[in-house]
Amino acid sequence: MKITSRVLIFLLIVSACKSINPNKPTYSGEPVVLPRATSEINIPIEIPFAMIEDNLNKALGQKLFAEKGLDLGSGFFTDIDVNRTGMIKLSTLDSKKMSIKIPMKMTGDLKFEKRIFGQNVNTAIPFDETLTPEISFRPKVGQNWDFSLEDINIENYGRSMKYNLLGFEIDLDPMIRKQLQGVLNNQLSTSNLSRLDFKEIAQEAWDNFSKPIEIDQDGVKAFVYTKPTKLKIREEVTADQKLRFFMGIEGEVYSQVGKTPQTIKTPLPNISYNESSENKLDIIIPLAITYEELDQYLNENLAGKRFKTDKRTELEVSNLESQSFGDRTLLKMDFLAIRKGRKQITGQMYLVGKPKYDAATESIRFDEIEFDINTKNILARSATWMKQGQVITQIKKLASYPIGEYLAEARRELRLQGQLRTEFADFSLVNPQLDVEGIYNTEEDIRIYLRSTGKMNVRVRGL
Questions:
Q1: At residue 361, what are phi and psi to the nearest 5 degrees?
Q2: What would the pLDDT profile of 114-153 be if each residue is shown by its tens digit?
Q3: How far apart are CA 61 and CA 90, in angstroms?
Q4: Which of 47, 110, 307, 444 could connect to 394 by a Cys-Cys bridge, CB 3.0–4.6 Å?
Q5: Beta bridge partners of 394
Q6: Which InterPro entries does this entry report, sorted A to Z (predicted)?
C-alpha cells in the first residue's frame, strides 16, 4: 500500500511538468509565418504662390509676342505687339486649378485689304489696349516627372476683344488666345517654374529611402535597408494660396547581420496616384538576434552562477543553448542541484517560453514558461525543489536579453537618415517614435519587429 501511494504521488508530480522530448526537442505544429515588414512615407510639399510669382515675374520677359501681317481672314490683317506691363498674380480657382493674371499692353493696327467691285480697298484702324487676361491652368507632374501646365484656358480679358471696321465686326479673341497659349506653353512652362524638378527630388528621396541603416550592439552590426516598390504623387491647389504636392514612397524592409548589403540603385517607377493626404512616416524594421548571440549572452550571464530554489537547495546551470520551438523559444541547459545533506543531482533541463518585450528594462524576457528535465535520478522530479516553481521564477528573472542599445542606435540612425537636403528643399524627420511591434521565432533567429513613426517637415528654400 505504501509503495502504491508513492508511485501515485510520483505520477501526479511528473504529470505537472510539460513533457518535452529530452533527446532532440522538436516542434510539430504549424510553421510560423512572418508578417511583411513594410515602409511607407508620405510627404506634403507646399509652395506658396508668392514664391512662384516671384520666380515667374523674374523669368517672364516684357515682350510676350509680336506679329506683322497676321492674316485674320476675309481680307483682314493685323500688326500686333503685346508687352507685359506689371506683376503676375496667381490665385486659386478650385482644388485642382489655379489662375494667373498678366497685365499687358496690346498695340497695333487692324487692316483691311480687299478688291471690291474692281476697286482696291485699303484701310486701317490703330488700337492701343490695356488688358489683364485671366488664364486658368492645372499644374501636373507627368509620367516622366516633368512639371507642366495643362488645360490652359483664357477665362476673360477684362474687356471685349471685338472691333468694328467698315461695318464688319472683327473678334481678335481667337488670335490672341492662340498666341497667349503659345506664350504660356513656351515661356511660362520653361521659366524658373521648371526648377520644380520633381524627378530629381523623387530620385534623391528614392535613393535615400533604400540606403542601408547600420545598427550596432556589442560589436555586432546589423543593417536595415528598404527595397522601394511604389512612388505616388498628387497635386492640390489650396484655398490659402499654395501649391501642394503629396509625394508617397512605399517599400519592403529587410535586415542583414555582418556585411553591408549590396543595394542596387533602381530607376524611378511609373507614377501612381496618391490618395493619401497624411503627413506620415511608418516603417517596420525587422531586427534579428541569432540563437548563437543569445547563447553567448546567456552563458556569459548565467553559466556557473547559483541561485536558491528553496532553503536547502541551490541550482547551478551551464551550457545554455537556445533554438526555435514553433512560435516559442526552447532553452536547453545542464544543471547541478546542490542539496544540503543530500546527494547532488545532475541532468539537463528544457524550458520553452514565448519571447516578450519588457519596456521597463528594454529587454526580451520569456513568458508562459513550461519545463522538463532529463536526469538519471528517477526520483528527482518528485523532489521539493522541483515542485515549488522556484526554478521557473529564477530562470525567468535571469534569462533575458537586453536590446536597449539596439533601440538607441536605431533611433539615432533614423534621425540621421531622416535628413535630406536637395537644391529645392530640406526634409527632416520630426518627433520620431520607435516601439517594439512584435517578436517572432524563426528557425535561424528571434525576429524583433520595431515600428518607427513620425512626420516629415519640409522647408522649401527656393525655386
A1: -105, 0
A2: 665 556 667 778 888 888 888 888 888 877 777 777 888 8
A3: 17
A4: 307
A5: none
A6: DUF4403
Residues 43 and 162 reside in one and the same domain: no
Q: Which structural domain range is residue 123 located in?
A: 61-190
**Strand partners of residue 308:** 314
Q: Which of 157, 190, 223 is the last residue of a domain?
A: 190
Q: Is residue 322 part of a domain?
A: yes
Contact 372, 20 (CB under 8 A): yes
Q: How far apart are CA 291 and CA 296, in angstroms?
A: 8
- Residue 391 covered by a domain: yes
The answer to whether residue 53 is domain-embedded is no
| 29 Cβ neighbours under 8 A, 6+ residues apart | 326
| Domain end point (choices 139, 169, 190) | 190
| Cell matching residue 3 | 509503495
Strand partners, 272: 232
Cα 257 from Cα 223, distance rounded (Å): 6
Using CA atoms, how far apart are residues 336 and 330, in angstroms rounded to an integer? 19
Those residues with Cβ within 8 angstroms of residue 433's Cβ, 6 or more apart along the chain or in another chain: 452, 453, 454
Burial class (CB in 10 A: 0-12, 13-18, 19+), 94: exposed
* 463 residues of the chain, pLDDT tens digit each: 333 333 222 222 333 345 555 444 555 566 778 888 898 999 998 989 998 888 788 877 788 888 888 777 777 788 889 899 999 899 999 999 999 898 989 898 878 776 655 566 677 788 888 888 888 888 888 777 777 778 888 888 877 777 776 667 777 777 777 777 777 666 555 455 555 567 777 777 777 777 777 777 666 677 788 888 888 999 999 999 999 999 898 988 887 777 777 777 777 788 889 999 999 999 898 888 888 888 888 898 888 888 777 778 888 889 999 988 888 888 888 888 888 888 888 888 888 888 899 888 888 888 887 777 666 555 455 455 554 466 667 666 667 788 888 788 788 877 777 777 777 788 888 888 888 999 988 888 888 898 989 998 888 876 6
- The answer to whether residue 371 sits within a structural domain is yes
Number of domains in the chain: 2
CB atoms near residue 316 (< 10 Å): 18
